[in-house]
Specification:
The complex is a heterodimer of chains A (about 290) and B (about 290). Chain A is built from 11 helices and 2 strands; from the N terminus they run H-H-H-H-E-E-H-H-H-H-H-H-H. Chain A has about 290 residues and is an all-alpha fold. Chain A has one domain. Chain A has a two-stranded antiparallel sheet. In chain A, a hairpin with a 2-residue loop joins strand 1 and strand 2. In chain A, helix 9 packs across helix 10. Chain B is an all-alpha fold and about 290 residues long. Chain B has one domain. Chain B is about 75% helix and about 0% strand. Chain B is built from 13 helices and no strands. The longest helix of chain B has 27 residues. Chain B starts with a helix and ends in a 7-residue tail after the last helix. Classes of the chains: A mainly alpha (about 290), B mainly alpha (about 290). The interface between A and B is large, with 49 and 46 residues.
Chain lengths: ~290, ~290
């Protein structure tokens, strides 16, 4: 029971790191970034590259992967979203251009690493066990949980208290007004994408470490889960995304215990559908039905 | 000449069949996009059509055309209560809700014994002929083309451009949205039945998120201004992987680049290549993009 709860909180933390970045881009720019799972995968591969090819220790590889993911996020915006934004294209176009980037990047990764599961070289990924009573817990997961919680607190502080956070919120509210008030809109957008992708990439690195497995399709299961998390929490609400992520993590682990394995996915999507029908604003959302 | 044509047809008959089915699917999502609604449930409706048709034949010995019709009808019937619930939502919420419906349906198919679970249904007779597909496509395309000028089509366009204005003109907005949704489900269900009888086997994962997005890509890349767009889009993006076969490993990359180029440089889709100038003007007056 303790182990299951522990795993639920662990997987919830991964979902939270992933979904917070996804929700951030949506709340600021109204973009459903379908390339976010690709950033997640790229983060894990950047860590693999740093450890396996460059021979760096994991504590250097993690920041390397995080910065690489963040920079990829900025490039993604310049290539796939900025031209559409200048034209005032509908959100649908951004979904499709991010899908195109996914096609390209996943294939590029496969050209270099193939499509199979890859493990980190042995001994390069931290691993230790914690024993509580008769339960054995993996220590790395605890570290991941603490790191995730710390980062989300940091993000909340950044968005609420700093000048950059105020710029980003002004941009989310009204890009034109923000520009008129002297906000450097391009910088705020770049920062949004950097933060979003750095967190998404980090989630990928951490999941890769925890399972000691990386593959080009590892982001796919997270795509629809990010939707679920965001809708449950309230579209574009960052605290909502965090709460939604833990709700989903707990629900999935519970349904694994009590339901047949093939129904695991049913929980996430059933929850998603139900929330949309019963309470489209989610837990923390304010305006929902009329927001395009 | 005729011989060469026949050779071509037999060598590429599966591809030609797929182009037709995908064109039907693209048209099925075009209807809702034309009404300004972004829905992603058409892969699910396709699954309903495919499974209902295949199961009716297998267990009740229903003849092929009737089984197809039942599949399409059940898809449309499912769309009614679903549409009544989800059309309280708009924009991406609507897209996500219809997507969630598709995923829930997929999981139900995975968990139900009669649909064969994860293995799906195998040994479906390859009854679909090319002319079935292209006759269906011609009928659907003709009807949709005519619909644009009819009352329904004008109501859809009005809803797309400005819902509140449309409502104030006495257009029953919810009812017209629902009509578009159900019409799309009917076409997708029919296409699902046809496609099940080409591929011999169906499984739940054939109709997952990826399929829903693929259908949307066909329609959007082809262009929403008229029903020819989705047909172009489906033809190009179904044939492209074949055409790019020599590029092998780089095929997906090239396909991604084409997709990116179209969405960035041809805002209203392939169908508008010849009218780029006009498109720019329409954009300036704010009447261009849909959804």
């Amino acid at each position: 029971m303790l182990e299951q709860l522990y795993n639920a909180i662990f997987i919830g933390s991964i979902y939270a790191l992933f979904a917070v970045g996804f929700a951030l881009v949506f709340s600021v720019l109204d973009i459903l970034n379908l390339a976010h799972p690709t950033v997640f995968m790229l983060g894990a591969f950047a860590a693999l590259f740093a450890i396996g090819t460059l021979g760096l220790p994991w504590y250097v590889a993690v920041p390397f992967a995080v910065v690489a993911s963040g920079l990829f996020g900025i490039a993604l915006d310049r290539i796939a979203f900025a031209p559409l934004r200048r034209r005032g294209a509908p959100p649908l176009s951004a979904m499709i251009s991010s899908l195109a980037i996914t096609l390209i990047v996943v294939r590029l990764v496969e050209l270099r690493y193939g499509g199979d599961f890859i493990t980190f070289p042995s001994g390069t990924v931290p691993s230790f066990l914690i024993r509580i009573g008769d339960a054995t817990l993996e220590g790395v997961r605890l570290a991941i949980i603490l790191l995730a919680v710390g980062l989300m607190a940091g993000l909340t502080f950044l968005v609420r208290q700093t000048q950059l956070g105020r710029d980003i919120r002004a941009l989310a509210e009204n890009p034109r007004a923000a520009r008129i008030l002297g906000v450097d809109v391009e910088r705020a957008i770049a920062a949004t994408f950097f933060i979003s992708s750095a967190l998404g990439g980090l989630a990928g690195v951490l999941l890769g470490f925890a399972y000691n497995s990386v593959d080009s399709k590892m982001g796919l299961p997270l795509e629809l889960r990010a939707f679920t998390v965001m809708v449950v929490g309230g579209m574009g609400s960052l605290p909502g995304a965090v709460v939604g992520a833990y709700v989903l993590g707990l629900g999935e682990v519970a349904s694994l215990v009590y339901l047949p394995a093939e129904l695991r996915d049913a929980f996430a999507f059933g929850l998603l559908f139900l929330v949309l029908i019963v309470r489209p604003t989610g837990l923390f959302g304010q305006r929902a039905t009329d927001r395009a | 000449m005729i011989e060469a044509t026949l050779d071509f047809l037999s060598a590429y008959s599966t591809l030609i069949a797929l182009v037709g089915v995908n064109a039907l699917l693209a048209l099925s999502v075009w209807v809702t996009l034309y009404a300004g609604q972004l829905t992603l449930g058409n892969a699910a409706f396709m699954a309903v059509g495919a499974y209902v048709a295949a199961l009716l034949e297998r267990h009740l010995g229903t003849p092929f055309p009737l089984a197809l019709a039942c599949g399409a009808a059940v898809a449309a019937l499912v769309a009614v209560p679903l549409g009544l619930t989800v059309f309280r939502l708009r924009g991406v919420y609507l897209a996500i809700a219809t997507l969630a419906f598709g995923e829930v349906l997929r999981v139900i198919l995975l968990a139900t014994p009669i649909t064969g679970g994860g293995q799906g249904l195998n040994g479906i007779p390859p009854t679909t002929e090319l002319w079935h597909i292209y006759l269906s496509l011609a009928v659907v395309a003709y009807v949709l083309w005519r619909v644009q000028g009819a009352t329904v089509g004008r109501a859809w366009a009005a809803v797309r451009e400005d819902e509140i204005a449309a409502a104030s003109q006495g257009i029953a907005v919810r009812r017209y949205k629902l009509a578009a949704f159900v019409a799309g489900a009917l076409v997708a269900g029919w296409a699902g039945g046809l496609s099940a009888h080409i591929t011999f086997s169906i499984e739940p994962n054939d109709f997952a998120f990826g399929k829903a997005v693929q259908i949307l890509v066909f329609a959007v890349v082809g262009g929403i201004p008229n029903p020819l767009g989705p047909i172009f889009g489906a033809a190009l993006f179904t044939a492209l992987p074949e055409l790019l076969r020599p590029l092998r490993d780089y095929r997906d990359i090239f396909q991604g680049l084409v997709l990116l180029a179209v969405i960035i440089y041809l805002p209203r889709g392939l169908v508008t290549v010849s009218q780029l100038r006009r498109t720019r003007r329409l954009q300036q007056i704010g009447a261009a993009d849909v959804a």
